[in-house]
């Protein structure tokens, strides 16, 4: 295993990523609300993305640009790291393979961010690429999230089983 995976497998890393990713997710939701944004992030259809761009006010465009160049650069690393760390911690020898979908989503997410910045600044229109990047990126994150929930649930059930077993033997 590489140094990256060794570090992600540490319980301490899992907790650090949890305490970084969760506030970033809340900040992301707050930012969307603050600027009244419908984000390009979840839109894979290029024509729908172009329509959204035309509807943005100058303030929303600036807010979206700020969001995409700050939070949407940090959040993919934190979320994918959290999901990968959970997979490595909860799924033993299969964790390495289960950690890959969210980790592979990061370069797609960053590519998508560059495409969005180019579109938001009227520099270039590569929105057609989002037809491929957005669904694959989203699927990778969703797999990571679901695996994290399953792994956490199994871990909690095993801990609860140990606690109950401790009470019965006392």
Characterize the main sheet: none
Q: What integer value in Å does the Rg equal? A: 19 Å
Order of helices and strands: HHHHHHHH
The N- and C-terminal alpha carbons lie at a distance of 41 Å
Structural class: mainly alpha
DSSP, total strands: 0
Helix content: over 70%
> How many DSSP H or I helices?
8
Tell me what portion of residues adopts beta-strand conformation. Answer: under 5%
Topology overview:
Layout: H1 3-8, H2 11-35, H3 46-55, H4 58-69, H5 71-90, H6 95-98, H7 100-120, H8 130-169
Helix pairs in contact: 2-4, 2-5, 4-7, 5-7, 5-8, 7-8
Describe the structure.
The protein has 170 residues and is mostly helical. The chain has one domain. The protein contains 8 helices and no strands. The radius of gyration is 19 Å and the shape is elongated. The mean pLDDT is 93.
What's this, in brief?
The chain has about 170 residues and is mainly alpha-helical. It has 8 helices and no strands.
Task: Considering the chains and any ligands shown, give keywords for the structure.
170 residues, mainly alpha
């Amino acid at each position: 295993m590489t140094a990256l995976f060794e570090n992600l497998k540490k319980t301490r890393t899992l907790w650090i990523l949890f305490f970084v990713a969760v506030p970033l997710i809340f900040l992301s939701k707050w930012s969307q609300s603050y600027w009244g944004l419908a984000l390009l992030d979840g839109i894979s259809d290029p024509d729908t993305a172009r329509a959204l761009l035309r509807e943005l006010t100058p303030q929303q465009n600036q807010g979206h640009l700020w969001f995409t160049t700050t939070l949407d650069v940090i959040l993919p690393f934190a979320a994918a790291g959290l999901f990968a760390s959970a997979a490595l911690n909860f799924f033993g020898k299969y964790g390495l393979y289960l950690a890959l979908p969210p980790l592979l989503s990061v370069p797609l997410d960053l590519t998508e961010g560059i495409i969005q910045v180019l579109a938001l600044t009227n520099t270039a229109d590569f929105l057609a690429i989002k037809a491929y990047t957005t669904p694959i990126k989203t699927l990778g994150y969703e797999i990571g999230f679901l695996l994290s929930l399953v792994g956490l649930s199994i871990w909690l059930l095993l801990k609860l089983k140990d606690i109950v077993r401790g009470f019965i033997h006392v």
